[in-house]
Amino acid sequence: MSRQAPTLEDVAREAGVSRATVSRVVNGVRNVDPAIQELVRQAIERTGYAPNRAARSLVTRRAETVALVVSGAEDASEAAQAAFAARVFADPFFGRVVAGIVGFFRPRSVHPVLMFAESDASRQEVLTYLRQGRADGALVVSSHADDPLPALLAGAGLPAVLFARPARPVPLSYVDLAHRDGGRLAAERLLARGCRRPATICGPLAVAASQERLAGFRGALARRGLAHVPVAEGGFTLDSGLAAMTGLLADHPDLDGVFAANDLMARGACQILRERGRRIPEDVAVVGFDDSAVAVSRSPHLTTVRQPVEDMAAEMARLLDEHIRGARTEPTSVVFEPELIARESA
Amino acid sequence: MSRQAPTLEDVAREAGVSRATVSRVVNGVRNVDPAIQELVRQAIERTGYAPNRAARSLVTRRAETVALVVSGAEDASEAAQAAFAARVFADPFFGRVVAGIVGFFRPRSVHPVLMFAESDASRQEVLTYLRQGRADGALVVSSHADDPLPALLAGAGLPAVLFARPARPVPLSYVDLAHRDGGRLAAERLLARGCRRPATICGPLAVAASQERLAGFRGALARRGLAHVPVAEGGFTLDSGLAAMTGLLADHPDLDGVFAANDLMARGACQILRERGRRIPEDVAVVGFDDSAVAVSRSPHLTTVRQPVEDMAAEMARLLDEHIRGARTEPTSVVFEPELIARESA
DNA sequence: CTGCGGGGATAGAGCGCTCTCCGGGTCGCT
DNA sequence: AGCGACCCGGAGAGCGCTCTATCCCCGCAG
């Protein structure tokens, strides 16, 4: 920065009006004479003026910034922290969350600050950041249900919205999916395809969503007389899908349907099934979950339960925006309904 | 925010000292009587004071924030923008970049603001953001070499550091890898394993790094008398690796070595090779590039050319920090050397 | 006993912006 | 013609912090 940046004062002098008038033009408030408006606009152009945000924030008490907090596993080691970031980003899920958030906030020219909270220290950092007024609120994506961050945020009275319902009730708004219904949809699809020996690769049982999907799947099957369903637990990664499918096939070589709790694991399942000579969907039908990019990136295109992550993230953003503006004061929850997307694999 | 946040004034009153003294304690400058220091510290504790960043920024002219700009393909459609974010995040590469940057900046309690620049409008937004003083500088990761953003940044005199050398010279610091050497290392490894009919799956040729890796690979082979090498162009994705390998095998069923320009494509190549009954590395040796998480996530563990992305990103952060602090004024480039990591696949 | 040097705390002037008042001009209406 | 309503622009008081200049007090030399 060589020369001093022009201020409102400079523009005012240049345009021959007062500071207040320039401010009014910049912020588009009240009626300012069109002629003067044009005059000011030209002066802004000439001086290359850009309003100083710190000064504005100081008086408006708004940062016009939100924190996007990825709250993760408890692990203090330095290496684990780096790995955490990499791992979070590896999941296609997170990219969709970002896309949804950015989609909502960008037109309002607020940009998210990326923060990680996987230790007590980093959680305090998030709190301090918000209390300092550097961000007006937080969007929290937790990787495990008993994350302490939401309670801290609520306790400090800071605006925040969560992705997924927290394990213990917290007076904060959240957005979630009816995972149980999703599991049911998958079961019904498999049943409709004539599967009689379905199995499932569920997500990590420490995650509430995994349990719900599994419960929905089992429940629907039980209602149709299939009480015992082989279950293998995966970790939402491709590799875990590979491993789970291998195990399932070893114990139940005659299975004719698989519900994987996300598309990545479904992909892994397909790969193993094909390697073992099973045709999809003729011999084994496969249903995924999420409807992420990988569902259609390869053959066979996956029949899957759609989780509208982008829409959900946009809704989080909308809720947070309302909380910040004070347009909404009570914690609210918005639960989205999943939808079955029929493709080749089942 | 129910009650008004406490200010420096409040703390000063509480401690029975002046505002300036509290400020000095908070910022740890000059000699303050230890007794008073303790007094102030207690007052801060009691009031729950958190310094207002806007006020501080206003006078220090520092935002203590940097922009992490992902600069991408030219595409104006709304849907493409959302997809862009998702795509960027899907690449394991980006997660490593974030990890490196966060690793450097977090101890200094500066957090990155995530911005996307894939249109003229969004590029202007980035510029305005910086000119408004909302961020002190930018870290730019471009997906294509002829990105106009670096030139804009340099033209505006804004501190910025790039990942990878820009296509046309720009007076900005950057961090890069000696891609050519990486290609050479891959070639030498394949040669050392006794490969006589190597092929390569290169990255998108619009990306300079892809060209360099290819040139290095070809050059080393040519020096050993292998002038003609089958080349298939991929897109750095798993699927493109699948497709490229399929094509390569169709045209050159007798190939005995493959160099893929990243690990994801190498993974794809391995998958196809195995499906076609080739043993790795006995029948066909495979060398990847990057040494990302996928290199060891599945069998066979990939022999690969390591790109120390985290270190490179941390170096970007360090350079930017120096530019911002004024400790470095001249644009500087730091080029990292790749390293061959020998594992099972070659 | 006065003068002086210096550590240590204070007073106060902004940083650049918003926003509430307020004043002056222009109408419309009686 | 007179008067209030209305509209538009200006003046000025902060927002909470940093930092320079200043002042106070104490010890010590002259």
Would you mind describing this structure in some detail?
2 copies of one chain form a homodimer. With 346 residues, chain A is an alpha/beta fold. In chain A, 47% of the residues lie in helices and 17% in strands. Chain A is built from 14 helices and 12 strands. Chain A has helices at 8-15, 19-27, 34-47, 53-60, 78-90, 92-105, 120-131, 149-155, 179-192, 208-223, 238-251, 263-275, 294-297, 309-325; strands spanning 65-71, 111-117, 137-142, 160-163, 173-177, 198-202, 231-233, 257-260, 285-290, 303-306, 333-336, 339-341. Chain A has a 6-stranded parallel sheet with strand order 2-1-3-4-5-11, with helices on both faces. In chain A, α12 links the parallel β8 and β9. In chain A, α1 crosses α3, α6 crosses α14 and α9 runs parallel beside α10. The model of chain A has no long low-confidence stretch (mean pLDDT 91). Chains A and B meet through α4, β1, α5, α6 and β2 of A and α4, β1, α5, α6 and β2 of B. The structure holds a DNA duplex (30 and 30 nucleotides).
Q: Quaternary status of these chains? A: homodimer
Number of helices of chain A: 14
Average pLDDT confidence of chain A is 91
Beginning-to-end CA distance, first to last residue of chain A: 60 Å
Main beta sheet of chain A: 6 strands, parallel
The largest chain-to-chain contact, stated as pair and per-chain residue counts, equals: A-B, 64 and 63 residues
